[in-house]
């Protein structure tokens, strides 16, 4: 099954233009079998300093989106896209944790990456940096605190940077993922990672991404309407 590992809904991500049912419809129309709902998690969304209140709204949006997905025969996995205040606003995708994690630690956006990594790992999760080379900026973080990096197929970005990111990920034995970062402000890219059909929750998704020696990803370069399948090998064949 093809799972887009980076998707948003307007219920939380204000930069996204449509709600969960339309996000799901667009993904199905593009031949995608599921998404990781990784809405933006950042301080600017917190009202009156109530971080827990935001965490509650955030997790409620996941449950709503999952209900919509279940009704449509579409998989929805839990995730987060954390804007790291101490790291120039770098975006870090969190996989493998559940809503209880977000409710227990509602101010993760304020942590240094090293602390977030230790906390997420202690709760069975993993970190992947989203679009580290988006539109000419180099925000790549220390790979010691990342489990992977993302080749991103957003149509408004400059490139997926898949070749450059492949070398970076292989050099550190990290996984290379793929996501569309879809906000419904462009056409829906056909992209994501091919995962076994048996994967049914975010923990199983994490286990697969952390342990697989290879991962087939679908990417779509900006300005192109055709996507292509790429096999990422965690370490190059010598």
In brief:
This protein is of the alpha/beta class and 238 residues long. Helices cover 29% and strands 24% of the residues.
Strand order of the largest sheet: 4-2-1-10-11-12
- Tell me the domain tally: 1
| Percent of residues in helices | 25-40%
The number of helical elements comes to 6
Largest sheet: 6 strands, mixed
Assigned CATH class? Alpha Beta
Please, what is the oligomeric state?
single chain
Descriptive report:
- The protein is of the alpha/beta class.
- The protein has a single domain (2-233), classed as TIM Barrel.
- 29% of the residues lie in helices and 24% in strands.
- The strands form two sheets. A six-stranded mixed β-sheet has the order 4-2-1-10-11-12, with helices on both faces. A six-stranded mixed β-sheet has the order 3-5-6-7-8-9.
- It is globular and about 45 Å long.
- The mean pLDDT is 96.
Highlighted features:
238 residues; alpha/beta; TIM Barrel; six-stranded mixed beta sheet; 12 strands
Question: Which secondary structure elements does this structure contain, and how are they paired or packed?
Answer:
Blueprint: E1 2-7, H1 20-29, E2 34-37, E3 40-41, H2 51-72, E4 75-78, E5 80-84, E6 90-95, H3 99-104, H4 113-122, E7 126-129, E8 148-152, H5 162-172, E9 175-179, E10 192-194, H6 202-211, E11 214-219, E12 228-233
Parallel strand pairs: 1-2, 2-4, 3-5, 7-8, 8-9
Antiparallel strand pairs: 1-10, 5-6, 6-7, 10-11, 11-12
């Amino acid at each position: 099954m093809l799972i887009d590992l980076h998707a948003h809904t307007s219920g939380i991500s204000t930069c996204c233009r449509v709600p969960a049912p339309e996000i799901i419809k667009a993904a199905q129309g593009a031949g995608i079998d599921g998404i990781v709902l990784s809405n933006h998690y950042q301080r600017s969304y917190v009202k009156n300093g109530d971080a827990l209140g935001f965490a509650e709204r955030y997790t409620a949006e996941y449950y709503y989106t999952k209900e919509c997905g279940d009704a449509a025969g579409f998989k929805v996995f839990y995730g987060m896209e954390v804007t790291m205040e101490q790291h120039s606003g770098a975006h870090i995708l969190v996989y493998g944790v559940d809503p209880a994690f977000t409710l227990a630690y509602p101010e993760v956006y304020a942590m240094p990456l090293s602390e977030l990594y230790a906390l997420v790992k202690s709760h069975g999760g993993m970190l992947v940096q989203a679009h580290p080379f988006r539109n000419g900026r180099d925000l790549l973080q220390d790979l010691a605190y990342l489990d992977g990096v993302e080749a991103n197929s957003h149509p408004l970005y400059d490139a997926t940077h898949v070749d450059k990111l492949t070398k970076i990920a292989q050099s550190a034995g990290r996984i290379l993922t793929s996501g569309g970062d879809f906000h419904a402000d462009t056409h829906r890219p056909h992209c994501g990672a091919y995962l076994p059909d048996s994967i049914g929750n975010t923990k199983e998704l994490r286990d697969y991404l952390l342990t697989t020696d290879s991962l087939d990803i679908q990417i779509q370069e900006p300005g192109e309407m055709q996507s292509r399948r790429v096999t990422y090998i965690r370490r190059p064949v010598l």
